[in-house]
Amino acid sequence: MASTTEYEDERINLSKDAPKQARPRKKILVPPKPHEKRYSSFNKPQITLDTETTGLDPDKGDRILEIGCVRLNGREISLDPDDYLQIYINPERDIPEETTAIHGITNEKVKDCPVFADIVDEFLDFVSDTELLIHNAKFDVGFINMELERLGRGRLEDYVAQITDTLEIAREMYPGRRVSLDGLCLMHKIDNSARVFHGALLDSQLLAEVYLTMTRGQGEIDLDNWGDAVEIPPEIIARLTMPEPSPEELAEHEKMLDKADKQCKATCAWRKALGIGVEEKAS
Predict the structure, then answer these.
(1) Per-residue pLDDT tens for 58-113?
(2) Active site residues
(3) 98 a known binding residue?
(4) Other residues' Cβ atoms within 10 Å of the Cβ of residue 133
(5) Handedness of CA 180, 185, 187, 193 (dihedral sign)
(6) Which residues of 136-172 are buried (b: 16+ CB within 10 A; e: fewer)?
(7) CA-CA distance, 254 to 47, in Å (whole number)?
(8) Which one, out of 4, 110, 136, 190, has a CA that is 20 to 30 A from the CA of 178?
């Protein structure tokens, strides 16, 4: 069985080979949805973060075993090794077999690793003054704050600009649906086949892909609830130019829409937005 690190390296290579994301279209008439207003803040660098632990409760002696972070490069996942942080930590206690079955980290694997006190500065330097993106932030932040408080180093909130819980975003965007990391990967067709075990760096890599997909506005679009149009000032409209398409271009465009209708076996989004149904077009 390949190691977690090998899985993570494979994940990065998959991202490198993936096609570049298409340039997002400008939105003039569609106001932002509530989650976009609350969470889409790009004033600070963004880092996805995940931890693996000895158990579920930092108040009952459980400790951190691994921290994984991925720094985003704007709206893309960086391939620069300096934008990745993975630290295995000696928890100074035994790891229960039932948690090893989840993340694959054994006592033997971390017995010679540094303790949290030895890596705290490296970790805080990496995340300082950034926006952290964490799936179920309460869990990971609770563990990190426990470790920091044991050292008299305050709380994670003292060092970072913002903590964003991507689980809250997903619940708001997809009410009633399964929004675990695996569920979101399945929903957005993101390959998570390397996730044989949970791993902090691998899960941070997957979370980065999920977050960028969720927030680029090209996932599930509710065409029935676009909201009221924003009134554009006449002086702005006067400066806009809209060249007329040629008959050939219009014909080519219709062919493209016909193909889209056929592939989705329904009226494509463009025609729905214009109020054009397949039956109406056929007539």
Answers:
(1) 999 999 999 999 999 988 998 899 999 999 999 999 999 999 998 889 999 999 99
(2) 198
(3) yes
(4) 28
(5) negative
(6) bbebbbbbbbbbbeeeebeebeebbbebbbbbbbbee
(7) 42
(8) 4
